[in-house]
């Protein structure tokens, strides 16, 4: 049987989309989410399934006044806002925004979101540093000049199937002090019948340990002295620990290695169901015990520069020394559990390394969704190399000093006016995006109503 066999058979379903298209019919096809606010991208009545999510976005900080009025530039596509035109504008991407902005997805009016993950890490943009890769569930496409730099722009895709029975609510939460400008598609299909009671729902969670509690970060990886016996795994880095029924379908792992040697060698260990005893302890060995971090990610002798359907390297430490992002997707080999699962990896053999690890776990399980908690923004930011301070202005004397003082006063006033216009533009864009969010909700409700009228199904409107 082919994985494409579903294309040869009809199915009772109605396809639709919500997106950031300019509902005025113009070309400002992106939404603005102001600082410390959120936007509802989709609010859809079920039963149905999210089939595809595409996003691209930018978040830039202005360092000086541009020559083009921000409100006048608001009538065209954001060409100037993506790349600097020397002497015309002076902006740079926020290097950390992929960690400051969250994806939040809630199924069937649950109290807890099923997905609560930093925007970048959800799609595989680890360390807030995009790089192109292709996998079964996610892809990232970045221009060469935007790749492997903190805060670079990229196109993000997710094809993980996400069923919902009563309602799907997808939100962007901007915890940054800058506005987020975002394009998006959310493609979905509606069904005439309720989902089966045993349907498993898509979930994702993010975790970070910075630093991991290594007992010997000063000892070289693979040296004889770090080859201790680990027969418990109790100090492992935990990717996922959840109760319920479902299956784990993979993760991405971002590592900032501080020793300068090799960050792998840690064994993967996965406990399932009856591996957990009533007193809270675990059996040894766990149901799945691996042979090394690189082996869990299906590499060998370190990581290679590849990106396959189910495993690969997104960022290779040979391209960005000290940084790595890898993924493993259990699409054809899901790890199933009936009551509980704990997915963990040693951070260096015997947990001797004290690196910065961050991971996103993906799994499907029955509702209710488990508690979702994220650390505050300050504890999510990627570790970036220190930037040297800019030089202080050198003093001048005489007539030129007077002219310099006048020019600085002119610059300060122009910068003040420019910031006011930027703030007004953000306000206007934010209001329009909020109205278009409400328009998306109404559109989805209307599609559901018309589909139900055709199929004879009765149900409340998602927007009611």
Automatic annotation (TrEMBL):
Protein name per UniProt: Glycoside hydrolase family 172 protein
Keyword Metal-binding: no
InterPro entries: DUF2961 (IPR021345)
Domain of life where this protein originates: Bacteria
Pfam families the UniProt entry points to: DUF2961
GO molecular function: hydrolase activity
Ranges of compositional bias, category Basic and acidic residues: 423-455
Annotated region (Disordered), positions in chain: 1-20, 374-398, 423-464
Residue stretches spanning the membrane: none
Record keywords, A-Z: Hydrolase
């Amino acid at each position: 049987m082919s994985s494409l066999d579903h294309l040869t058979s009809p199915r009772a379903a109605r396809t639709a989309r919500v997106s950031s298209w300019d509902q005025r019919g113009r070309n400002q096809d992106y939404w603005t989410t102001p600082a410390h606010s959120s936007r509802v991208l989709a609010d859809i009545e079920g039963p149905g399934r999210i089939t595809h999510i595409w996003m691209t976005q930018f978040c830039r900080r202005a360092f000086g006044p541009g020559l083009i009025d921000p409100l006048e530039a608001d009538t065209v596509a954001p060409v100037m806002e993506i790349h600097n035109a020397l002497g015309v504008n002076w902006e740079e991407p926020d290097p950390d925004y992929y960690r400051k902005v969250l994806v939040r997805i809630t199924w069937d009016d649950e109290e807890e979101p099923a997905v609560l993950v930093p925007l970048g890490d959800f799609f595989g943009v680890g360390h807030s540093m995009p790089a192109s890769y292709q996998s079964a569930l996610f892809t990232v496409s970045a221009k060469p000049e935007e790749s492997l730099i903190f805060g670079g722009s990229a196109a993000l895709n997710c094809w993980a199937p996400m069923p919902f029975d009563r309602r799907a609510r997808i939100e962007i939460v901007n915890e940054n002090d800058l506005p987020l400008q975002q394009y998006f598609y959310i493609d979905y299909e509606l069904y005439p019948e309720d989902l089966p009671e045993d349907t498993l729902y898509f979930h994702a969670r993010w975790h970070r340990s910075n630093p991991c509690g290594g007992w010997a970060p000063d000892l070289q990886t693979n040296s004889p002295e770090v080859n201790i016996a680990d027969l418990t795994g109790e100090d492992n880095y935990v990717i996922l620990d959840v109760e319920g029924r479902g299956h784990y379908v993979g993760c991405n792992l971002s590592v900032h290695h501080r020793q300068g040697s090799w960050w792998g060698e840690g064994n993967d260990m996965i406990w399932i169901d009856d591996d957990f005893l009533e007193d809270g302890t675990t059996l040894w060995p766990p149901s799945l015990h691996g042979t090394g971090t690189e082996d869990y990610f299906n590499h060998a002798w370190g990581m290679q520069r590849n990106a396959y359907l189910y495993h690969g390297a997104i960022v290779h430490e040979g391209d960005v020394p000290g940084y790595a992002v890898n993924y493993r997707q259990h699409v054809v080999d899901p790890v199933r559990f009936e009551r509980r699962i704990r997915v963990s990896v040693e951070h260096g053999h015997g947990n001797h390394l004290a690196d910065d690890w961050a991971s996103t776990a993906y799994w499907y399980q029955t509702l209710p969704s488990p508690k979702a908690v994220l650390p505050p923004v300050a504890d999510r930011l990627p570790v970036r190399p220190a930037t040297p301070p800019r030089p202080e202005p050198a003093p001048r004397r005489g007539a030129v000093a007077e002219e310099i003082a006048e020019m600085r006063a002119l610059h300060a006033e122009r910068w003040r006016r420019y910031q006011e216009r930027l703030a007004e533009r953000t306000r206007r864009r934010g209001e329009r995006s909020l109205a278009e969010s409400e328009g998306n909700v109404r559109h989805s409700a209307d599609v559901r109503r018309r589909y139900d009228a055709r199929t004879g199904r009765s149900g409340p409107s998602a927007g009611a």
